[in-house]
Amino acid sequence: MCGIVGYTGVHQAAPILLEGLEKLEYRGYDSAGIAVSGTDREGNPCIEVVKAKGRLKVLCEMTDNGRSVHGCCGIGHTRWATHGEPSVANSHPHYAKNKRIAVVHNGIIENYQEIKEKLIKEGYVFTSETDTEVVAHLLDKYYTGDPVDAICRLMVRIRGSYALGILFQDRPGEIYAVRKDSPLIVGRSAEGNYIASDVPAILKQTRTVYFLKDMEIVKLTADGVAFYGLDQEELERSFEEIHWDTEAAEKGGFEHFMLKEIYEQPKAVRDTMSPRIQDGKIVLDELGLDEETIRGFARIQMVACGSAYHVCVSAKYVMEQTAGIAVDVDLASEFRYRNPVLDPHTLVIVVSQSGETADSLAALREAQKRGFLVLAIVNVVGSSIAREADSVFYTWAGPEISVATTKAYSTQLVAVYLLAMHFGRIRGVLDEAACGRMVEELQQLPQKIERILEEKERIQWFANKFSHSRDIFFIGRGLDYAASLEGSLKLKEISYIHSEAYAAGELKHGTISLIEDGILVIGIATQPELFEKMISNMVEVKSRGAYILGITSYGSYSMEDTADYTIYVPKTMECFMPSLVVVPLQLLAYYVSLGKGLDVDKPRNLAKSVTVE
Ligand code: AGP
Predict the structure, then answer these.
(1) Could you identify the atom of ligand 1 that is nearest to the CA of residue 606?
(2) For residues 558 and 525, what is the distance between their CA atoms, to the nearest angstrom?
């Protein structure tokens, strides 16, 4: 996600802003910029803006490490692209005409398109593809001399998630900030006051902070901080002292990025789905696939690696049940060499968090070489797979630092659900009412994930009992089999324990010979029609000595007649169960790895993006 820093005080602002942005580099970004309140040659107040694509050092070189930009009040930004390719024009700060107002933003303005169209009709000239630029022009439109009033009007008009840092040209020395669903902190010190997306950016300058709440507005001057509500009334707020070290601060107080990213899943899922659901209907115009094209697909061929491949396995069940279209799934490393025979009317879907996985990119090129249309589900904007695909569905998980994917995986599942429902409705398989009910249920997922996260201690307790296992098996049927694959990979890659995932009906064809006393078998049973069969499979392995961990949804309490320990997840539609089941599996893997004292975020032999064969 993007990074924001702001400073107003007794020192020159630009060097402080650049130093703060450096501390946010771990969040991932593709461009950066600063805006500083100063005066022009005639001594009039002005805002100087400097932006650069690429690494922060480009911006540092352009500004002689900030020394060439004069002024004691400014805002800075590192951009993680969501709307619009990485470029100077798309980088922040964005500003209104003649730089009356400059803005930096972290989040997603969901209704920016309709606002942009309206503002263009009113004569506003846009210079970027971003959602953020509408904020600068709207503030310019609303500003009549009272910044807080203009910001309040802005908050009523825009929808989505945002943390905003704002400069008004005629208010030199003042920074305004506001947030909704995107974090923003306020720092206070004897030498000036700060805003930042995250603690690391200002930890060197101050430990006296206030974590801004949703819909609160803050005004910073060199020697004071004031807070306002949406009613423009001033608010009393108290600061706190933080005692994190830098490394802990980068993880937001979590011990590892993986746990932080597991906890970011509700927001990542919400950020990925919300902009695509308008008035209860799915809107995927961004794909550039018209209805005739969608109806013309005879099959779908999905291709990916690792966890992204497991999303494809889930997608087979979801797409076939919801959209009535046949889905084939293949590992990218196999697809690219097997000279595949595909129906001429096949849509190829490539799934990749990084968008740089060599095998997945090669599979994409192989498909395009054969004349197939390729849709990519990708998290990194402007990545190779995103650039080369014919159509892109971006997951807005934000940068994923931990090698073991969690939040990106969850947003890829959401992408699959939305595509399946969109295709199902257009192909006449899913009626409007059924689609509406699915949309409503889909929108409940974030809080259901949050509910599971509240149970982490139970999962941690269980993990510690089995952190020294030699072998662990995962079994499931249907969508629970797909979930088993992901659970097993998560465990293997960060705990180094041998694990296998099996379609439960397959056990008697060989694998059951491996079951012996005390071996842990994790049975996932969330699909009602398959529940009884799953219980039978668990009984099979239990009678041969296995210890059973059952994972099912609340209400299926008969699981406890068979399982030695049961973890429950909230009920939801069967096709959305993978999004809930994966959370205890992620936590289980995390706590087993933690229990073994391993490097959870950087497991041995693995890289975050496998850009070579
Ligand atoms: C998942 O936890 C692993 N890190 C790995 O399997 C990963 O999913 C795979 O390498 C694919 O990466 P991609 O999604 O960036 O293409």
Answers:
(1) 4
(2) 11
